[in-house]
Amino acid sequence: MAGTRIREATGEDVPLILSLVRELAEYERLSDEVVATEEGLRENLFGGRRYAEVLIAEHNGAPAGFALFFHNFSTFLGKPGIYLEDLYVKPEFRGAGIGRKLLVRLARLARERDCGRLEWWVLDWNEPSIGFYRKLGAVPMDDWTVYRISGTALEDLASGA
Amino acid sequence: MAGTRIREATGEDVPLILSLVRELAEYERLSDEVVATEEGLRENLFGGRRYAEVLIAEHNGAPAGFALFFHNFSTFLGKPGIYLEDLYVKPEFRGAGIGRKLLVRLARLARERDCGRLEWWVLDWNEPSIGFYRKLGAVPMDDWTVYRISGTALEDLASGA
Questions:
Q1: Which residues of A touch B138 (CB under 8 A)?
Q2: Which of A72, A138, B116, B154 could be cross-linked to B147 through a Cys-Cys bond (beta carbons 3.0 to 4.6 Å apart)?
Q3: Which region holds residue A160: left if phi is over 0, alpha if psi is between -120 and 50, else beta?
Q4: Residue ranges of the domains in chain B?
């Protein structure tokens, strides 16, 4: 199939999704953080409760990239948004507008589902991506910082300690 | 009822939730951004698709604060997390450990639902909250910035313009 095609992922794509997640983590220099397994992804993406949705980009029939997203919720707007957890295009397919096509698809989904915003995080050193996003009209939320509790601190909090 | 009680919100709490959202926005100096309506909150929180969950804190039977959260998803962990969109305690109830009780409840939910992380955004000038969160073991994700597309930029992207 010639050109780029964006399609919804199915359970059969789990090995592909995990390999793309690993490539993305390598690009972000965060490979140490990847502990996901095919079983976990299958259960949480295609099981009884689907925590996120995945779009696969194919170029001339070959897997070229993916976007994984879920719905967040804005109390100020009183409605959901789309949060883009991962956007990745394999190096050999970059420069062909595939990342943009994935974002256009997400913007259309946002419109169809009456979502007020499309949001995602970017690593501050990732200048090529930041330039790309800003050209699309994305605005950095400079006044905010994300805080995270995980691991033993989360356990301690759950124990009320 | 003496002391603090944390309970799940129901559809009947929508007016209370909206008034607490407005108080929070005022505290964050973001009142201009609140366009939520009772109808929107009712549909999106208690309708066919529930985009977020709400906990109400009561102190001696009076509404004292709330937490609104939803599930995000980490591809690196391969499992969901809990994202805390809003945490608010009314000024007259502060210092009684109510915010902490709401966070403890969320940490327990995270454990029950096999979530790897509890995350939220904080405004950088909000030093009292930041100090409180850091004492609980929360870590700022300093290397990341949130980007957002909304309004006409989102429309333009959806149009493929």
A1: 147-149, 153
A2: A138
A3: left
A4: 4-158
